[in-house]
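Revision sheet: structure tokens.
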Amino acid sequence: MIFKRLVPAAMFVAAFSLPAAVPAHAEADAESLVNALNAVFGAHDGVRAAHTHGFCVKGNFTPTAEAASLSKAPHFNSKTPVNLIGRFSMGGGNPAAPDFQKDNVRGIALHFDIGNGNTTDLLMISAPVFVAKDPDQFLSLLTAVATKDKEKIGAFFQANPNSTRQAQWLNARPVPASFATVNYWGIHAFTFTNAEGKTQVIKYKALPVAGEVGLTDEEAKAKDPDFYRPELAERLAKGPVQFTLTAILGEPGDPVDNPTELWPEDQRKSVTLGTISITGTEDDKTCDAGIFDPTLVVDGIEGPANDTIFPMRSAAYAVSFGRRAK
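Predicted:
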């Protein structure tokens, strides 16, 4: 199975003629965000600008009967398991990011093959919130961090307390013992439409069938910086790694345009959409041949209209892909 997602040629052209630095007060666009990520983490040839450290896996998705009641999307209505390619990763643009870093998100990106040349993607991280409400705030955050000036960085977070929520969430919890033993959330709100035309706003959450398992700070520090890959290989040798994919049902008043805002998850109903089964590792070249695009949805799923981070991710990933594909 290979990626069928193509990056527009115009984005490749733009990516090949980018300025080397980000002006201090630049308006955020895809190019300036990738430049800012490189300013923070360094520019590394042939790899992603974000979620750089990771590896490719394969598996399938089996929907529940309840999934079809929410969405007419093909992978939620399939009578047989849907093949997928996935990628586990650490956040940020450091290709050597240590797996034991507590305040860094873990990510899982999924590329569903729904047949007849059609695909759809789903991206989730190990925190229910992002670090910025919009591209301009994200650019300002990266620009401040790139200075390595503690006063400037502190001033940014003091002026933008919503950008501290992700790190607070992660630091309040143990380092995950495995990519297979941590919850993952979709940070964006989506609108599902079923066959009868009924709509429902949701957020995705994937729960590990093996349960949440964490490490003490001492246990984490004793680990190899790249311990997740061999740990998962050992786990897969015993059987599939599975997650229960759920839809948290939104209610009126829940924010749908700001990925730094938490939904009151413990006060919301959820519906089980199906089981994600990771059955083995895959050549990293398979994942590197394209991008995992959160905006690549199908009939029955609609992305958030006013969440400006959502479309910017697709554009930034395309610029990053253009650079690493040179």
